[in-house]
Amino acid sequence: MIAPTNIVKDLIKASAEALVPLYDPGEADAIIRLLFAGRFELDRVRIAMNPSLRLSESQIVQVYKDLKQLKAGVPVQYVLGYTEFMGMRINVSPAVLIPRPETEELVLLVLQLINKNHNINILDIGTGSGAIALALKKMVPDAQVYGLDISEEALQMATQNSDLNQLPVEWVQHDLFIDQWPVKHPLHCIVSNPPYIPDAERARLHINVTQYEPKSALFVDDDDPLVYYRKIGDLAMSHLGAEGILAVETHHRFAEDVADLFVKQGFKMVKTHHDLHGKQRMVSAVH
């Protein structure tokens, strides 16, 4: 239970302490500050400049409601209903994976690879919330961007985010392993952040991931962790034009394996790329 106070700095401290059984103190503090910034537009600077800042009674009630969900392990992005990605507001729910900062690096890699070739067709496979597709449409407005996903709920969220950010993307419902290929136009770039976490690692992950985020967007069988990359590579070989670009996010343990797979499938200029933490998290290739 948080302290009976309406002073913001005290509420933040008490709320963070209430989360410590579930998170370490630094992470708990970051989560609560993200909540206060998203819910009440109270960022760290504004709070520091107004140490006696107080919440209204209705705002305190909202904090109690939010804290109840956070203490159950619900990610703060789901509590708020949105997150930030590449300078955009992206609405999220348990129907879609929460976009990570590492995935912003995948978007930046794609922008680097396409250089100034902007009048192109781009496909995001496994689009989820639509974050990658929308970021690329934002940065490359002349491109025709497609976002593909098997989940109708995910595509409804992606459509909502398209409307929210006023970025036109063509959303396509499709099962990679069953349906006939739905995109008829030649593609210049395929990008994907597919499921890549082996089931064996599930027990080591926090409950805010395992209990609330969509399992189908995260996990793969231990026996074949590259199943999505194999299929995406096959499709890319069939549907990318000459010199077309393939870029994917990977598990850092499998980046070299994904690169070897793409080489065997016939791609050229296959490279692994490190994220800001020095881990091999992306692989690019050219048709």
Give a structural overview.
The chain has 287 residues and is an alpha/beta fold. Helix content is 41%, strand content 20%. The protein has helices at 8-19, 25-40, 44-49, 57-71, 76-80, 101-114, 131-139, 152-165, 207-210, 227-239, 255-265, and strands spanning 82-85, 88-91, 121-125, 144-149, 170-173, 187-192, 197-198, 219-220, 240-249, 268-274, 280-286. Helix 1 (8-19) packs across helix 2 and helix 10 packs parallel to helix 11 (255-265). The longest helix has 16 residues, at 25-40. It is elongated, with a radius of gyration of 21 Å.
Summary of the model, kept short:
This protein is of the alpha/beta class.
Identify the notable features of this structure and list them briefly.
287 residues, alpha/beta, 7-stranded mixed sheet, two-stranded antiparallel sheet, 11 helices, 11 strands
* Shape, per Cα inertia axes: elongated
- The string of secondary-structure elements, in order, is HHHHHEEHEHEHEEEHEHEHEE
Total number of helices: 11
Task: Give unreliable regions as ranges.
Answer: none
Proportion of strand residues: 15-25%
Estimate the helix proportion, in percent. 40-55%
User: Major β-sheet, in short?
Assistant: 7 strands, mixed
